[in-house]
Amino acid sequence: QFDLKEKRSFFGQRKDYWDFLCQGLAQRRQEHEGIRFVTSLDKLKTPVGRGRAFLRYCLVHRQLAESLQLCLLDPESLCEWYYARSPFLSSQLRVEILRSLYELDGITFHLAL
C-alpha cells in the first residue's frame, strides 16, 4: 500500500491494492484462481479484506511472486496506481522485492483462507 494513489470507484468506494491486483492480473491472464476464490467469499466486504485474503491464498498456493510480477509488468499501470516513491516504480527495488517473494515459494504456509 505504500505510496498507493487514492482512487475511487464510480460509486465513490475507495480502491485499494486489491483493485490494482485484479486489474493487473486481468490484463495478463484470462482469470486468476486466487481472484475467483476471493470474490466467492461472501464475508469479505472491503477491498483491504479481499486483498489480505488474496495474499493468504497466494502464499498457501505459492503464487505470490508470480502474481505480483504479472501486475508489475505494465509501467503505465504502475504510474496510474502508485506515486513516484513507491518501490514498485524503482526497477532495482522491484527486482529485490520479487526475488524475496520467490524465496517464499520454498516455505509451506498453512493459513486459514
From TrEMBL:
Q: What are its GO biological-process terms? A: plus-end-directed vesicle transport along microtubule; positive regulation of autophagosome maturation
What are the record's GO terms for cellular component? autophagosome; late endosome; lysosome
Q: Which PROSITE patterns match?
A: RUN
Question: InterPro entries of this UniProt entry?
Answer: Run_dom, Run_dom_sf
Q: Where is the RUN domain?
A: 1-113
* PANTHER family documented for this protein: FYVE AND COILED-COIL DOMAIN-CONTAINING PROTEIN 1, RUN AND FYVE DOMAIN CONTAINING 4
What's this protein's name?
RUFY4 protein
Biological source species: Ceyx cyanopectus (Indigo-banded kingfisher)
What is this organism's lineage?
A: Eukaryota, Metazoa, Chordata, Craniata, Vertebrata
